[in-house]
Amino acid sequence: MSGLLDLFLMFFRIGLFTFGGGYAMLPLIREEVTRRGLMTMEELISFVAVSESTPGPFAVNIATYVGLHRAGLAGSAFATLGVVLPSFIVILVVARFYEKFKTSRAVQGIMSGLRPAVVGLLASAALGIAGNVFFPDGFRFSPALPAALGIFGLTLYLTFKKHHPIKLICLCAVLGIAVMYGLEALGVSV
Amino acid sequence: MNKKLDLFVTFFKIGAFTFGGGYAMVPLIKSEAADKKGWIREEDMLDILAIAESTPGPIAINSATFVGYKTAGVWGSLCATLGVVLPSFAIIALLGTLLDRFSGLKPVRYAFFGIRAGVLALIVKALLSMYKKCPKQKLSGAVKQTGAARVWALLPYLLMALAFILTALAGVSSLAALLLCAGVGLVTYFLHREEPKA
After folding, report:
1. Where are the domains of chain A?
2. Residue A19 pairs with which residues in a beta bridge?
3. For residue B58, what is the nearest residue in chain A, using CA coordinates?
4. Are A54 and B91 in contact (CB under 8 A)?
5. Window A:106-125, CB contacts with B under 8 Å
6. Mean pLDDT over the full length of chain B
7. What is the ipTM for the molecules in this complex?
8. A116 and B92 in contact by Cβ < 8 A?
9. Which of A27, A30, B74, B86 is the most exposed, fewest CB within 10 Å of its CB?
10. What residues in A contact B94, CB-CB < 8 Å?
11. Does the beta carbon of A16 lie under 8 angstroms from any beta carbon of chain B?
12. Who has greater pLDDT, B45 or B94?
């Protein structure tokens, strides 16, 4: 039971303190999930791709997944409830005091601090993720590094060409398989 | 159809057909809730977005709760929120087990090697668009200002740097960095407002 309550509270915290949704949630989720050893960095990054390719908000997807791992279906229900509840309650309150909320100077002040903070946090998370993607076994050269850099560069270019993320993820999967089997065929240990 | 059931079904559809979440859901919510059902007006959508951005939690949940409440009160918001969550919950609950079963296979590991590099690109793209959307003056213009005006103009940049440095280099938790920046934002907002306008 305490396991379920822990899951609920952890995701409640994530739901309560992430503004903007989507990737804005990544820094907090990364901290909670990897520092507690609920998921490795690799698993988390891979799961971002799974979440992009399945319907629904990232927060709900990852809450369901982490919950499932820790405590089966009941765990995913508790985790999902936790991540949804803060925004549900807050919106119910705000919907009532809608006009006041819109013009509240305190809200505007807080948001003027939070908006830039979220950008800084995501930059920090991106840096950590880059370290993991390019240097999974510590800071040294591996034959897979140029491949990872190449796939990253190509995907970044294609996202700016407005290609759909799911299409890009499929492309990356194919490239990953091709490159790694190619390296293997060349006798390079990967 | 019963309004609450209608809310549930409509948001279930929205939850089932938007991949990636977040802003991807906005056009569908607009077409379903405003254009087709007339639950909200089109211009309400902008307000909903603004509120979703300044309240915690996923945008999809925020919008569903808000539209549901406006349409049919607390029960309406419950039905809409449940509807938008259920598809992704069900799919991940099913997929999660499969994922674990196959994640050890070599081709799957190789595929995810490529996918992780691609995900990093998606995150960098998201970072750049969040940076662009963050309200601020142009950096080149901000540094040209003098005195207090310069501090106010540079503040968003300083807060970005602060949050980055605290979490990336100083090992401060994201939560603490968020609270600190919110506090700085609140205080400076009021200080700034009380300055006599020149």
Report:
1. 2-136, 141-190
2. B56
3. A21
4. yes
5. 106-125
6. 88
7. 0.87
8. no
9. B74
10. none
11. yes
12. B94
- The phi, psi pair for B12, rounded to 5°, reads -60, -45
Query: Is A32 near chain B, with CB under 8 Å?
Result: no
Of the candidates A65, A50, A59, A47, the residue with the CA atom closest to the CA atom of residue A23: A59
B56 beta partners: A19
Give dist(CA B193, CA B170) in Å, integer.
Answer: 32
Chain centroid to CA A138: 22
Domain layout of chain B by residue ranges: 3-102, 104-133, 137-198
- Grade residue B198 by pLDDT with cuts at 50, 70 and 90: very low
**B165 chain-A contacts, CB cut-off 8 A:** 120
Contacts of A160 in chain B (CB under 8 A): 125
Provide the percentage of residues in chain A whose pLDDT is more than 90. Answer: 49
Of A22, A116, A128, the CB nearest to B181: A116
Residue-level pLDDT at A103: 83
